[in-house]
Amino acid sequence: MPGGAVTELETAVEYLEGYAEVLAGVCATGRRLTREEREALRSRGERAAEAGIGLRALVRAHLAEAQRVHSELQVATADHLLSAVEQAVDAFAEGHERAQHLLMRQEEAARREFIDDLLYGRSDLGRIAERAERFGLLLSHAHAVAVAQGPEPYSDGYEVTRSVESSLVARFGNRRILLTTKDGRLICVAPADETEVLAHFAKQAHAATDGGQVAVGRAHPGTSGVVHSYEEALNALDLASRMDLDDPVLYAADLLVYPVLTRDRQAMADLVQTVLGPLQQARGGAKPLLDTLTAYFDTGCVTAQAARRLSLSVRAMTYRLDRIHRLTGSDPGDPVQRYTLQTAVVGARLLGWPDQVL
C-alpha cells in the first residue's frame, strides 16, 4: 500500500472516536442508533471532510474497526453488527457529504467572486494576482481572453460549458487556463504564448453553441491586461452585431480601424449626413440603397456578386449604383470617390443610420 494511502487511513481512524462503543452497545441490545449517536457521527463526518480526508478511506476505517469489534463479540450478539455498521456509516457519510457540498458552494462562490473582480478590475490588483494562483493563473505574465456567445445564454454546469471544458482539458491538460461563464457567455483566459488554446476554444465553442460567434482580445500583460483583453473581445462582438459581421471567429487586432473611425462621433455623423443623406430622397428611403452599397463594397465592388447577394439582377444592381451616383454625386466605381462612400457606409453601420437619428 502506498505511503500516502496509509497516512490517510491512519488519519481517518482519528474520526472513529466512540464508534466501537456504539457498535458494541447496539449489538448487545439489538436497538437502533439513537438520534444523539447519529448526530455525533454526522458531526465527525463533517469534520473529516473539512480536513480533506476522502470518504473511501473513512469507510474502510469504519469497516476495519467493525471487524475488530466483531472478533470480540459473542456469536449471539454479533447478529446485529451489520445493521449497526450500516446505520453508522450512513450517518457518517451524510455528514461528510453535507460538508463537501458546503465546501463546493463556498469554493464556487469564491471562484465567481474572483472572476467578477478579475474581469471588471473591481478589487486591488495585487490581491487579485495573489488569488489568481489558486485558480491556475500567473497574472505576472501576459494573457488574452476569448469570449463566445451563442443563440442562448450559457452558465456553469450547462452541457455546452461542460463539452468545451472537457475538450480543452483533454487536449491541453493543466496549462494555466481559466474557463468560465459570464453574463451568458463562455470565457477562456489563456497565457499569451498559448495561442493554440484560444484557437481550440474558438473552434469548440463555435460548434458547441450551434454556430455561435467567438471574439478574441489582444494579449496584454498584468492583471489589468486581462480586463483590457476581455473588453476588447466584448467590443468585437458588439461591433459584429452592428456591422453584420458573420465571421465565426473575430480578432480584436483585425478590427482596430472601426474604433478609430468612431472616436470622433460627431465628425463621423457629419460625414454620414453629408455623403449619404441625399439617399433619403429615394423612393423607399435610404435603407435599400445603403444595403446596395454595403453589398457592393463587401464583395470587392463586383457588381454581379453583389447582385446575387441581394437577389437582384445585374441590371437592377447597375441601376441602383447609378441612382446612388446621381443622388450623392459620388461614383461608387471611382477609386477616389469610392473611399469616401465606403467610409461613410461603415460609419452609417456603426452609428445605426438611418434607423437612428444622428
Topology:
Blueprint: H1 3-13, H2 19-29, H3 35-50, H4 55-72, H5 81-120, H6 125-134, E1 142-149, H7 159-172, E2 178-182, E3 185-191, H8 195-208, E4 213-216, E5 220-221, H9 222-243, E6 249-251, H10 257-262, H11 265-276, H12 287-298, H13 303-309, H14 314-328, H15 335-351
Helix pairs in contact: 1-4, 2-4, 2-5, 3-5, 4-5, 7-8, 11-15, 12-13, 12-15, 13-14
Short description:
The protein is α+β, with helices and mostly antiparallel strands and 358 residues long. It is 63% helix and 8% strand. Helix 2 (19-29) packs antiparallel against helix 5 and helix 3 (35-50) packs across helix 5 (81-120).
Explain this structure to me?
With 358 residues, this protein is an alpha+beta fold. It has three domains: 3-105, no CATH class; 135-255, Alpha-Beta Plaits; 263-351, PucR C-terminal helix-turn-helix domain (Arc Repressor Mutant, subunit A, Orthogonal Bundle). 63% of the residues lie in helices and 8% in strands. It contains 15 helices and six strands. It has helices at residues 3-13, 19-29, 35-50, 55-72, 81-120, 125-134, 159-172, 195-208, 222-243, 257-262, 265-276, 287-298, 303-309, 314-328, 335-351; strands spanning 142-149, 178-182, 185-191, 213-216, 220-221, 249-251. Strands 1, 2, 3, 4, 5 and 6 form a six-stranded mixed β-sheet that branches. A hairpin with a 2-residue loop joins β2 (178-182) and β3 (185-191). α7 runs antiparallel to α8 (195-208), α12 crosses α15 (335-351) and α13 crosses α14. It is elongated, with a radius of gyration of 33 Å.
